[in-house]
């Protein structure tokens, strides 16, 4: 979301919500954000492969809120690999779960995992709280089951 790193018509106009999606085998830009407020909640990410780069791209003047998503990780991918700093400064991450290839599913602080492995740090607060959401926000551990049952062509959430 956002067309370039140059200040332009996108500023103040990109307010996007991504929810109840299955991202299966995609290797980057889930999403990649510049100049926008983006709410990413209740998505299931199945990430694997040698070409995996990152999941959430934190770009210039972005305000990304990542809440209660489930990340199923292939070999060699860690929680620290999920966010990526594309010139952004902050991201809010709450209630997310990772299911690594080499262990059980567990809660994760994505910003904390990124900051422990990279410099400069991302601040752990994007500066806003989403208010326009459809239905209840599910616990991250339930997301793979709900998204698996309802995401895709000719399927709708009740």
Question: Could you give the topology of this structure?
Answer:
Elements: E1 14-19, E2 22-24, E3 32-33, E4 36-41, E5 44-47, E6 56-59, E7 63-67, E8 70-73, E9 83-86, E10 91-94, E11 96-99, E12 106-108, H1 110-117, H2 143-150
Parallel strand pairs: 1-4, 2-5, 3-6, 4-7, 5-8, 6-9, 7-10, 8-11
Antiparallel strand pairs: 11-12
Structure at a glance:
The chain is mostly beta strands and 158 residues long. It has helices at 110-117, 143-150, and strands spanning 14-19, 22-24, 32-33, 36-41, 44-47, 56-59, 63-67, 70-73, 83-86, 91-94, 96-99, 106-108.
Task: Name its key features.
158 residues; mainly beta; Pectate Lyase C-like; five-stranded mixed β-sheet; four-stranded parallel β-sheet; 2 helices; 12 strands; 10% helix
Name of the CATH superfamily: Single-stranded right-handed beta-helix, Pectin lyase-like
Which band does the percent of strand residues land in? Answer: 25-35%
* Helix residue percentage: 10-25%
H/E element string?
EEEEEEEEEEEEHH
Task: Identify low-pLDDT runs.
Answer: none
Estimated structural class: mainly beta
Q: Work out the radius of gyration.
A: 15 Å
Largest sheet: spatial strand order: 2-5-8-11-12
Silhouette: globular
Number of domains: 1
- Termini separation comes to 28 Å
CATH topology: Pectate Lyase C-like
The CATH architecture designation is 3 Solenoid
CATH class: Mainly Beta
Please tally the β strands and state the result: 12
Q: Mean pLDDT, as a whole number?
A: 90
Characterize the biggest β-sheet: 5 strands, mixed
């Amino acid at each position: 979301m956002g067309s370039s790193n140059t200040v332009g018509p996108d500023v103040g106009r990109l307010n996007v919500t991504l929810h109840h999606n299955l991202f299966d085998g995609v290797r980057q830009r889930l999403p990649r954000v510049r100049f926008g407020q983006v709410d990413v909640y209740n998505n299931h990410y199945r990430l694997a492969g040698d070409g995996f780069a990152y999941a959430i791209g934190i770009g210039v003047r972005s305000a990304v809120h990542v809440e209660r998503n489930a990340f199923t990780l292939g070999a060699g991918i860690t929680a620290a690999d999920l966010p990526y700093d594309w010139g952004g400064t902050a991201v809010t991450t709450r209630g997310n779960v990772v299911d690594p290839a080499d262990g059980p599913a567990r809660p994760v602080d994505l910003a904390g995992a990124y900051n422990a492995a990279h410099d400069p740090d991302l601040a752990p607060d994007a500066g806003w709280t989403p208010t326009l959401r459809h239905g209840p926000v599910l616990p991250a551990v339930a997301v793979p089951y709900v998204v698996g049952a309802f995401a895709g062509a000719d399927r709708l959430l009740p």
